[in-house]
TrEMBL record:
Residues in Flavodoxin-like domain copies: 255-395
Name of the protein in its database record: Flavorubredoxin
Source organism: Harryflintia acetispora
A GO molecular-function descriptor: electron transfer activity
Coiled coil regions, renumbered to chain: none
InterPro entries in UniProt: Flavodoxin/NO_synth, Flavoprotein-like_sf, Metallo-B-lactamas, ODP_dom, RibonucZ/Hydroxyglut_hydro, Rubredoxin-O_OxRdtase
Amino acid sequence: MIKISDSVYSVGVLNPNLRVFDIVMRTDFGTSYNSYLVCGEKKALIETCHDTFFEAYLENIREVCDPAEIDYIILNHTEPDHSGALYRLLELCPKAEIVCSQAASIYLKNITNAKDFQAKVVRDNDTLDLGGGRELRFINAPFLHWPDSMFTYLPDERVLFSCDFFGSHYCEPRMIDVHITYPAKYQVALKGYFDAIFGPFRPYVLKGIEKIKDLPIDYVCTSHGPVLTPGGLFPQVLAQYTEWAQPVKNDKPQIPIFYCSAYENTQRVAEKLREGVLAVLPEAEVPLYNIIDHDMGLLQEKLGCSDAFMVGSPTINRDAVPPIWELLSHVDAINNQKKPVLVFGSFGWSGEAVPAIISRLSLLKLAVFGEGFKVNFVPDEQDLEKAVALGREFAESLKK
């Protein structure tokens, strides 16, 4: 337990040994499940925690008050790392009223599986009087990073409870920014968290910043990672979020070609497609990336920043090869929706790779160009001429 301000206590728990979060995120520095108790004449608990850590969480709450004294449980977000302990906590907080957004109230019915579940729904700028001069204000923050997300603000003590916004999967014993021992590691965690959690929602990040930029803030109480302060890291983190959320503007058309090639046959097609694109768009950047020769993080970045792209794979055992599927698993389906893509490859027996890739990209709502292009075994001169022509057609379509 850490006292943050006159009436705010951090009662969350640390998980320093966590190395994978939500299946897809590496967490080399662990994480924390932050929860805050605000004490006026009435008591409000903001967020709960992962249910695995319930006993430790309960001990922290009891350092401040008996759980039965809690009047409100405020859920800024209902993902299980925020709400997992709720169903057990409610048994110990008989008078507690749940406060959340409209979307959260719907999700919580299925998260708790409680037939008689009730919640007080709050909307943008609604307030909740805790007495003793403590009043909470609620700020809608949809898609930061779920539709249900909101911020909670305590004006009297200038505390913003920012949910996942400005957070990080980072863990040290004293979770306030001025006490961070390894600032370089924190920065790695901060950027990785932004990319994974908020990368798909950059326009909403800018809207979220706009909503809080004029608030007097002494403490930013995040749901993961250290509490941020104006005299510590908050100004820097705010500037970084603003920079990272800016829309990408390319000076030249970026049309990368990603491929794998067992015997250079798919590679030859890739080179000819590139030749065709450059014949129509000589100013374009059309780099060739053999996927197995490059870091997946770099390829993900290049794909995300592209104006269009191509992807090619040989067919092995009636499928595209695993590195191709790994790359496609990193496609941001939100920000790449309707992005033009051309699929190609070589095959020996059956040729399923190209239609399989097209099916996947179509499900992600990308704009697949044509029916793809595939060659049997080694491309001959006619195949290579067709590849050049297809590259030209693809480039022409990008000019429309």
